[in-house]
Write a structure and sequence with these properties.
Layout: E1 5-13, H1 17-32, E2 38-43, H2 48-54, H3 60-67, E3 71-76, H4 90-102, E4 107-113, E5 129-135, E6 145-148, E7 156-159, H5 165-181, E8 186-191, H6 197-210, E9 218-223, H7 224-233, E10 240-243, H8 245-258, E11 266-270, E12 278-282, H9 299-311, H10 315-332, H11 339-352
The structure holds 1,4-dihydronicotinamide adenine dinucleotide and magnesium ion.
1,4-dihydronicotinamide adenine dinucleotide is lined by residues 16, 20, 76-79, 81, 96, 262-263, 281, 284-290, 296-297, 300.
InterPro entries: ICDH/IPMDH (IPR050501), IsoCit/isopropylmalate_DH_CS (IPR019818), IsoPropMal-DH-like_dom (IPR024084)
Pfam families: Iso_dh
EC number: 1.1.1.85
């Protein structure tokens, strides 16, 4: 039962973040206003520039305010990699990961679609249309590790992968439910249970345990190394992939590459229990190398906005955006367009539908 008014936090961030988010907001307004839905937006100026200007990465006070919104639309944060004014890791750990962990974004949802009118680097890509359901709060990214005897010959650095039964169960359940809703109903677990026997068996046993509840879903398993091969040689074999945090991070970058580029890949950081706002963003970063040139591809951000609408219960509106993007890319996908031209064209495609 979807509402008609939502409070949305907008975090445009740095570099091309504000440029692509502006187009996502343009498209959101074009689809929600005719449907009688109001998105009440509050902009939060977080990111590298904000940290340089104020010293705030992400304060508890800001966290509290963010918690009050229905969803977060995020651009990208970060300075150029050679910008020595920003210590490496602070925005990743203290902003992005803090949001994911505090708001319990345990589902990191990354669709990979090869749109007509776009070019895959693969000679025979086939029909690519799959979703990676990546764990978002555990694994090797949980921050469980340390360095002892630092700076000596006997230094020890540990990074311990955390996998809880609770975390794996809620992930696997979500993935099965998603697979059941999709036409092909196929779920592939990707892990490395021949070597990572502890975490791998927890994942495999959890999948085995849930499978009988979803008899119409076909279940498959691939080791992560084999999965990277098939993602290149036969990507159309995949429908829903469920995997841990690190494997999912790597696999989705590869997925972005085979589906024609990082500018088209959206991402949802989802708290499926809805105990805190979920966050929607493009997979790409702030692209300082092209910031200010109006050449950033805004489609990833626009598709992330569609994922946000779907999460809020407006699947119909999300679908309108997805179809408009599809039609737009089919017609104009290979043209040189400025960032705001792409947004305008997609709004026009929406209105023409
Ligand atoms: P990046 O994704 O920003 O850029 C990689 C390459 O892809 C660049 O050549 C860029 O021009 C191009 N690119 C990215 N998005 C594009 C788009 N929409 N249209 C056209 N071209 C696009 O990754 P990079 O360069 O490693 O990182 C730049 C900054 O972004 C760093 O500070 C990094 O930490 C941060 N970052 C932030 C993320 C986030 O906020 N979620 C995610 C990844 C990186
Ligand atoms: Mg990544």
């Amino acid at each position: 039962n979807a509402a008609t008014k939502y409070s949305i936090a907008v975090i445009p961030g740095d570099g091309i973040g504000p440029e692509v988010v502006a187009e996502a907001v343009k498209v959101l307004d074009a689809v929600t206003e005719p449907a009688g839905i109001t998105l009440d937006k509050t902009t939060y100026p977080l990111g590298a520039e904000h940290w340089l200007a104020t010293g705030e990465v992400l304060s508890d006070e800001t966290m509290d305010k963010l918690r009050g919104h229905d969803a977060i639309l995020f651009g990208a944060v970060g300075a150029a990699p050679n910008d020595t004014r920003i210590p490496s890791g602070i925005l990743e750990r203290d902003l992005l990961l803090k949001l994911r962990f505090t708001f319990d974004h345990y589902i990191n949802l990354r669709p990979a679609t090869l749109y007509p009118g776009t070019t895959s680097p693969l000679a025979e890509p086939g029909d690519i249309d799959f979703v990676v359901v990546r764990e978002g709060t555990e694994g090797l990214y949980a921050g469980n590790g340390g360095r002892v005897r630092q700076g000596t010959e006997h230094e020890i650095a540990t990074e311990v992968s955390i996998n809880t039964a609770h975390g794996v169960r809620r992930l696997v359940k979500y993935a099965f439910e998603l697979a059941q809703k999709r036409p092909r109903k196929k779920l592939t677990l990707v892990h490395k249970h021949n070597v990572l026997v502890n975490a791998g068996r927890l994942y495999q046993e959890t999948v085995n345990e849930f499978a009988p509840q979803y008899p119409d879903v076909t279940v498959d398993y691939l080791h992560i190394d084999a999965a990277t091969i098939f993602l290149t040689t036969d990507p159309s074999r995949f429908d829903v992939i469920v995997t841990d945090n690190l494997f999912g991070d790597i696999l989705t970058d590869q997925a972005g590459a085979v589906t024609g580029g990082i500018g088209l890949a959206p991402c949802g950081n989802i708290n499926a229990d809805r105990t805190a706002p979920s966050m929607f963003e493009p997979v790409h970063g702030s692209a300082p190398d092209i910031a200010g040139t109006a050449t950033a591809q805004p489609v990833a951000s626009i598709l992330a906005a569609a994922m946000m609408l779907e999460h809020l219960g407006h699947e119909d509106l999300a679908d309108q955006i997805n179809q408009a993007v599809r039609r737009d890319l089919e017609t104009h996908g290979n043209e040189q367009r400025s960032t705001d031209q792409v947004g305008d064209h997609i709004v026009a495609a929406l209105k023409a539908a």
